[in-house]
From TrEMBL:
PROSITE patterns named in the record: CYTOCHROME_P450
Subcellular location: Membrane
Organism: Lithospermum erythrorhizon (Purple gromwell)
GO annotation, cellular component aspect: membrane
Family designation: Belongs to the cytochrome P450 family.
Record's keyword annotation contains Oxidoreductase: yes
UniProt protein name: Oxygenase
Cofactor(s) annotated in UniProt: heme
Primary location class: membrane
Length: 145
């Protein structure tokens, strides 16, 4: 749930793009000429209050307690790994990796953000911290490493 919520608020891939391959592609009332590239901005979908509710900008992992289908009004708009036939090939691998790494970190260390941390997510090919992430880390006594 925590990973899902992080991927909602800060999807590393900021957009998915598709090229209109046919003449007169119609999306709603918009006519898209052949050859035009359509960018769908993932953070915009993930932060739409009409879909997620008024707490859309809050970090609330529990919104995923009953799955994506119950976390928002239109689950198809939760797309951290894209959608359709070009959906991310590494999505399951990425989720397993994230769970393993996070479990190892939180079972061996306590950590908190340094007062020096400045929150400024930045887009540079992917969405990433704009001024690094300074963290205060303390090894737990029961450290397994
Ligand atoms: C949190 C980690 C990751 C995120 C958020 C992510 C996100 C994405 C997104 C949004 C796309 C575009 C999908 C679309 O156009 O509909 C994509 C494509 C792709 N991703 Fe990932 N990805 C992640 C990790 C990985 C990893 C670990 C691998 C490989 C081990 C991987 C391999 C690929 C490949 C090969 C494609 C292209 C698929 C295609 O065009 O058919 N990704 N990813």
């Amino acid at each position: 749930m925590a990973i899902q919520e992080v991927l909602r608020l800060y999807p590393p891939a900021a957009f998915v793009s598709r090229e209109a391959l046919q003449e007169n592609t119609q999306i709603g009332n918009i006519n898209v000429p052949k050859g035009v590239c359509i960018w769908t901005l993932i953070p915009t979908l993930h932060r739409d209050a009409d879909i997620w509710g008024s707490d859309v900008n809050e970090f609330k992992p529990e919104r995923f307690a009953n799955g994506v289908a119950n976390a928002c009004k239109i689950p198809q708009l939760y797309i951290p790994f894209g959608l359709g036939p070009r959906l991310c090939l590494g999505r399951h691998f990425a989720m397993v990796q994230l769970k393993v790494v996070l479990s190892l970190i939180i079972s061996n260390f306590s950590f908190s953000l340094s007062p020096k941390y400045r929150h400024c997510p930045t887009y540079k090919m992917i969405v990433e911290p704009g001024q690094d992430v300074q963290i205060l880390i303390k090894r737990l006594n029961c450290c397994n490493l």
